## 1
Amino acid sequence: MTYSYTQISQYLRCPRSYRYRYLDGWREKDIRAAMAFGRCFEAALAAYFSKEDSIATLFKEWRAYRDVPLEYGKGDSWDKLLHQGVHLLHMLAQDDRVQVKRPQKNLQLKIIRALPHGNEFVAYIDAIGHVDGQACLIDWKTTSSRYQEEPGGLLMLDPQLICYSWISGIREVALVVFVRKHTPEIQYLKATISDEQCREFGQLVESTIDQIEAARFSPHSGIRFPMNGCTTCSHLGLCLGNQQFVESNLVRRPGASDLDWLNQLGD
Ligand code: SF4
């Protein structure tokens, strides 16, 4: 069996939700404009580091969604997202704080790590390069609000970066966050992951897989209202037996044999 960060984190969030998605095949409908735009923007970044026309790439990719009925965030529109994306690409070039040499090799790297009992773990790393002259592993994010930076050192607790550090062996990590707000901004956030954190993450992966293979899928709704994870869970309709909710949020695909989640590792 092949596992990914998305799978492990979904199980840890709620084992029942994991079962709905990976075993029963209930997937969230892919209609969020922000998600689609994020994929188009990543294609533009690949063009930028390959010294191609990144703005033309962004337009070409995003144009495919022009007449698609996507769900836009409050105040967002197709034009507005394009405008923000162009602005962010200009800022990236102006700042010139990120370098990725040999983009063919160092962008979208697939890394596989063998796990006990014939399992394996797969991750796609956005880039390996330099931020402010420091060699590091880089993850891109597109978001509509800034990432929290305080208290200092918060980023070293980011579980996805710890996962990538664990699988790649690279301890210096960075998030480059493209913030699509009224005045677009790029955050360059850096952290060092320790060997101890990586060792603990490896143990977490193994114990989580043990739970999955033992078919333990109890609901885990989180902490009390209003911090209850169920309120933002795409599988809420299934747990409530609310057919209308199910139909508006989910689509059912083949279950465990469906491996197209491998393409969604950037969730
Ligand atoms: S609604 Fe709550 S209990 Fe049900 S799958 Fe989602 S998080 Fe788990």
## 2
Amino acid sequence: MKRFVLYNILFLLVLSLYSQPKPIKNVIVMIPDGTSTSLLSVARWYQHYLDPSQNNLNIDPYIKGLLGTCSSDAPIGDSAPTTSCYMTGQMSQTGFVSTYPVKTDHDILPVDATRAYQPLATLLEASKQMLHKATGLVFTCEFPHATPADCAAHSAKRSKYDRIAPQMVYNMVDVVIGGGVSYLTPEYQDFLKNHNYQVFLNDRQGMNDCPKAPFWALFNETSMPYEMESDLKVTPTLSEMTTKALEILSANPNGFFLMVEGSKVDWAAHDNDGKAAVTEFLAFDRACQVAFDFAKRDGQTLVVVMPDHGTGAVTIGNAKSNRGYDKKSLQELMSPIDDYKLTTWTMSEKLKEADTTEWPALIEKYYNVQISDAEIQYLQTAKDYAKSPIPKEQRKQNISMERMLSQILYGRTYFGFTTFGHTMENVFYAMYHPQDEVMTGFVTNLQMHDYLCRQLHLTDSLPKLTSEIYADHHTVFSGYTTRIDSLAPNKMVLVVKNKKKTLEIPSYTNYVTLNKQKIELSSVVVYMPENKTFYLPKNLVRYLEEK
Ligand SMILES: [Zn+2]
């Protein structure tokens, strides 16, 4: 009898071990940049208009709630601090890429003035350095742009690509696919190739044939084309890039962390270009399906989809439909954009090249719109129209030509926008978790970060990693003689000496030299010109300590 009970207990124990859900191994974060919640319904209806059998977006079954996103000092966020907050757990300021903010007199939460400009370790950095996961970035902007930079670089100025680009290279992300060939200098390419990376520049076939990590695949000199204008023989879709990244990253036995950004939803929304915003979002939504399908097959993958903020508040319903909105058919609301074949950005480039006498024919050809003389006059007042007969001084407060063109084109439709900038609205979030351990309802950016940390088993780890790899050089080398040399703009070297040894620490790289001998680090060194401080691993001092 005793033995029988024992066997039964053993049997149940073994059974419970086997039926125990496996913990999350892989995390995919999908960010449609600048996607207003109102854009979701426009995209869903537009898709239904094109194909009446389509009633849903791919994200629809996974939408869980609303997400509050903001900067440390403003309710309306900028891309750099908003994704920084998801990645680091610290709200920050406009322009700040995963960097601690400066204290202001209008902070939303208390800010510690003594930590200003400190780089903050990201989920991607922690996944790589602490969990030995593979890491990946997929995006359609150029690679040093705010959102991908938020994952793998640190800067108080998002526009300083010569500080950000090297960090993204030297941070040794396993798979990087996106835009920005012109920013990957020969020096960076050499570094990557010397570290067993394959580098594909405008080589879609090469990328698709690549059997393993690590690799970089970049397309276009700067950002990738909008999907509605993309030549699919040359440029991969976001879905294709996501598929490739997942195929390669999933080979790592420790799992992976992947961030996929639909970068140019935001750019289209900034231009109030309705069709570009809708089609760019639908392209992103198709990439989400790739991630959901992978996660369902895999059983150990979490997918989180969340914009960083709203832009433009793109919707259907404007001054033209103040009255009679309830009488408009779907056909009436959507068909005006059927004939809009180019983004206003690309068209404005064409108009700037052409003679003004050719403008009506060009606009007729690409939009089936007859433009008035007054509208031709208006376009010539654009701030960025170099050939304008109106002096530059009188135009500099005006908007750009693509935005003027959007006003002209979308003024003929029922599309509405509230701003050329970002909005304060709450954005949506969607999640797939194999055991349905999801969040629901309204959550904040900080709660979203904490959730991601819990799922990655990184709770409390990021502040520890930050203090280990981004310690300020004044503290680390107190008592030593230090000097900062400038080799070139944004190429600085911290030189630290004792009697016998010289440690040289270049900015934005992952190596130091000790008496000219190169030593590689597992993180990047960041120099912040704003406070003339290097942020580096605190254990570097051991190279100088006397034995
Ligand atoms: Zn953004």
